[in-house]
């Protein structure tokens, strides 16, 4: 038996690791950890690749159950993040979004949008002590803000130009993102 274990030690470790990934209790934290390792600062879209959000008429539900329209953020810098409580890449990038919110929350409008039930969103946010404003999806987003996978995040300037469109986990609390936000807030 010892000879068998020595001979197959690497295979046994790989199988044990894969088994850990199957169970949410162990798999999610492992996936979150690896997503954080590979998260980089999001890329800024080139001028020719940017589109303008013309239609701000988009209804969401805030955590108190009130309907909110994105129109209230017209002519403001806006970050819109589509996410899910079950999504490891979403969970991985949330701390960096929270750090950004801590410093820019009064100057930039943050929308963390999930299609899940408000009580589930609320439990998730409270359990991780996130203070960012979370919203429940109540209507179809404008065409420019479509998404096919989670997380997908948009950064809009004051004129509604989509400056960043990032699918997948990112480090939002990067120096380059902060410099971009500072620039957009001065424009």
TrEMBL record:
Domain Thioredoxin: 49-186
Signal peptide: none
Any one GO molecular-function label of the UniProt entry: antioxidant activity
Any matching Pfam family: AhpC-TSA
Superkingdom of the source species: Bacteria
PANTHER family in alphabetical order: THIOL:DISULFIDE INTERCHANGE PROTEIN DSBE, THIOREDOXIN-LIKE PROTEIN HI_1115
Protein name: Thiol-disulfide oxidoreductase
Originating organism: Aureitalea marina
Lineage: Bacteria, Pseudomonadati, Bacteroidota, Flavobacteriia, Flavobacteriales
